[in-house]
CASP-like protein (Musa balbisiana), 178 residues
Amino acid sequence: MFASRPAVHPVEAPPLADAAENPLGVRMKDVQGMPGTPGGLALRLVQFAFAVAALGVMTSTSDFPSVTAFCSLVAAAILQSLWSISLAFLDVYALLVRRCLRNRRALCWFTIGDGITATLTFATACASAGITVLIGNDLNLCSENHCTSFETAAAMAFIGWFAVSPSFLLNLWSLACR
């Protein structure tokens, strides 16, 4: 029987890449907005600024404690500002010592924290905006209340939520890619 035999042809090994070009252990490029990047630090600082702005505007009025939605906006703004400034400090540390903050456990905590603060901020901003519309348009009581301050605080909370959302989505995406 004449059967063909497999032939083995030697293949040259690819040249070794320079370690500076492709460092070992790097799985993905740094996407700006992820933890430990300058974009991530900028997002955290914007989140902090708008949370503090919403908190300051809402607490500058004397009658915010009379409405539960406004009290919950103050609580959410406090939580958002504390969370954002904590992670901003962590981002500054990571940038200074050139550390990667994308291990699985850290990403899980960042994602959960961002998800909770984003949901809470959005819910309280919606509730505050709804109560402000009720006071201003339906009850026509803006002359007795601080409607412009309430509207400004709700707007600051919405802008803060817009800054939290990319952080949450990037952390969730990074966690899902692992």
